[in-house]
Write a structure and sequence with these properties.
The longest helix is centred in the C-terminal third of the chain and has 31 residues. A hairpin with a 4-residue loop joins strand 29 and strand 30. This protein is rod-shaped. The chain is built from seven helices and 54 strands. With about 800 residues, it is mainly β. The structure holds 2-acetamido-2-deoxy-beta-D-glucopyranose (4 copies). The site of one 2-acetamido-2-deoxy-beta-D-glucopyranose (NAG) has 4 residues, from loops.
Length: about 800
Amino acid sequence: MESKPGLITLFVVCILALQSVCTEVSYSIQEELKPGTVFGNIAKDLGLDITTLSSRKARVDAEGDNERFCAVSLQTGDLSVAERLDRESLCDTKPSCILIQELVLENPLELHRINLHVQDINDNSPQFKRNSIKMEIRESAEKGTRFRIEGAHDADIGKNSVQRYSLQKNDNFILMVDANKVELVLDHKLDRETQREINLPLTAVDGGSPQRSSTVMIHVTVLDANDNAPVFSQAVYKASIPENSPLNTVVVRVSATDADEGVNGEVSYDFGHVSDIDERVFSIDFKTGEIRVIGTTDFEKKNAFELPVIANDGLGLSSSAKVYIELTDENDNAPVVYLKSLSNPIPENAPTGTEVGIINVQDRDSENNRQVRCSIQQGVPFKLVPSIKNYYSLVTTGQLDRELVSDYNITITATDEGSPSLSSSKCVQLSVADINDNPPVFEEQSYSAYVSENNKPGSTLCSVSARDPDWRQNGTVVYSLLAGEVNGAPVSSYLSVNGDTGVIHAVRSFDYEQFRSFKVHVMARDNGSPPLSSNVTVSVFISDVNDNSPQILYPSPEGNSFMTELVPKAAHGGSLVSKVIAVDADSGQNAWLSYHIVKSTDPGLFTIGVHSGEIRTQRDISESDSMKQNLVVAVKDNGQPSLSATCSMYLLISDNLAEVPELKDLSFNESNSKLTSYLIIALVSVSTFFLTFIIIILGLRFCRRRKPRLLFDGAVAIPSGYLPPNYADVDGTGTLRSTYNYDAYLTTGSRTSDFKFVTSYNDNTLPADQTLKKSPSDFLEAFGESDDPPQVRIPR
Ligand SMILES: *[C@@H]1O[C@H](CO)[C@@H](O)[C@H](O)[C@H]1NC(C)=O
Ligand SMILES: *[C@@H]1O[C@H](CO)[C@@H](O)[C@H](O)[C@H]1NC(C)=O
Ligand SMILES: *[C@@H]1O[C@H](CO)[C@@H](O)[C@H](O)[C@H]1NC(C)=O
Ligand SMILES: *[C@@H]1O[C@H](CO)[C@@H](O)[C@H](O)[C@H]1NC(C)=O
């Protein structure tokens, strides 16, 4: 409805009532008219005479103490606004605002009701309670969620009150106005992370004319919801550390951010599913995301790790990433030498280049750290020959000799090429097996044994010993005698050798007078297969024992009384009368004879040469001397104890055999027959002649050779028949050591034949002290001279 100020709408309501008050008039007026504004003419409306108004004291009254809002002009009857009419304060929100006034007329008293209908005008703007509205909305709020907003208030009513609202266009909210509710409806979800605060101006507009409006600012604070999972800075982290890194080394640091705030944005780290093994090697700091080494890292066991890591925020959102950790190799493994095969023992005759063993070298590290060089110690006859891959052959580089080196400890050293390099070594023990390559060798080139004659059978002569450096039976030496003959009898009848010990025993008793030395060969043989052997000469020297008493050859020991020497009566003192000839089968001192006169008819007349046995006159023969002289001569050798023999010598001091009949008387033995005496005389004569003859021949022979030492004292001749074979004679001068004895054999049975000189054994006359301990060099010396020209001694 359009109403202009001042426009009056008149309602006349005639209500028949009491006479005095029978009329009622209504006026409709706009509020806020200026006081004095005329809005009706009461006189006209009530049909009153204007002139009577003043006389009847017309006036407007309010009921009770109520204010008077209008006034009446007594001259014109016009009703005017007396007070400010504010509908809002008078009637608040009542849709019709009626003010009741009364027109009072006196004389007669008349009361006329005046109803003032106050019409609203748009004099109030919509009003919000506060200047701004603060809201907090969680970003998790669902679409369609409604948030009620206190609407604006407009004191005006009807069209002039709030008619609509308008919200500034925005992404999230729309406005829903419904009856008396104003609501913000979430049209698109909020995201704190993109917009933390939203300001929305909300305008309320009324329907008046002119239109009034007001705007309130809605501050929406978006509250965080845990709507963001942590996000890793990288999807994959890669790191590389050397193996054996010290504990607590930081390998890599993972980091994740969470757009949420507060608890929702607090990120903690953890591993995803990792194996127990990996868990013992790495740890992750739940706060900082640092991955550290907590265990041993061994490239050779595991060189790469794949660890899932998880980032959690405070309220259970999580995301994951991968961490690849690679270990780099360190040279932490020494190479190892393995002996794959070994021919042990190896025979000593293995040819050079024989493969003895196979060696394998391994290093668990990688690349350069596993490059291995192999070497063998110096000074052993072996070398390493590289073969396929890490295999080496151990081969010999020279001839082996078990007898020199029987065991080798071969040290093989392997060194890798890491930095610093590591090495290890292995000792290979190798034995050299024996081959029977050494014959037994006697400790001496020859052996000599010295034994006195008449030894007991079974007595030990000496021992030989041979060494064989081979092993066990190859080096076990067995001794034996080599077959041979000594004097025509097998050696085994003289000697025996102990096969195990090499001790040589006499099998029988030896007789120096039979033979003085002999040689045997002893063989030493090992037990190898085939056996090796060597032999050695053993010379056995038999030494003399004084076991033979001197044997008197002349005069005949038979006690023949006809053995008589003729002594010329004219013999001067010192002339040779006769000679006692004795031999001793022994040698040396044992055969060194001495002669003594033990009994004589005339002790002063004859002497005997102690060593020559020559009987000489001591003084000139005189007439007074008895014609028959009788001597008893003892012959002793020089042995210990010495042995002796005695004989009797008959001497006849006469110039002529005519006195022979008296010979009979010479004999101590008167029982000899006359015939026997003649025979003896004849024999002596023949013998004397014969000996003289021989001496002359020999003298001629040896004089030609100018051997002055061959002295013959021709006065005495000994019948050759008295010299038995094999008897040695001793030089009368007693120089025993360097003289040589030659046995002179007389051809038995032929008295006319020559002496037969035989260069006999190369045997020495043994010295008087015959002991086995005698230094062998003495004997060698003696033997060494055995090539000297033979010298001959003829017994005198
Ligand atoms: C070899 O080594 C062993 C034990 O290690 C030792 O008994 C032996 O004497 C050694 N041999 C050599 C020849 O060094
Ligand atoms: C002895 O030598 C032979 C080869 O000559 C050899 O076969 C054998 O094994 C050796 N015996 C010992 C005990 O070494
Ligand atoms: C004894 O040894 C010599 C060399 O020492 C050798 O010539 C000889 O044949 C050997 N005799 C025997 C019977 O073995
Ligand atoms: C010689 O003398 C010995 C004793 O001296 C006597 O036994 C022997 O019968 C004698 N002979 C003669 C032939 O008278």
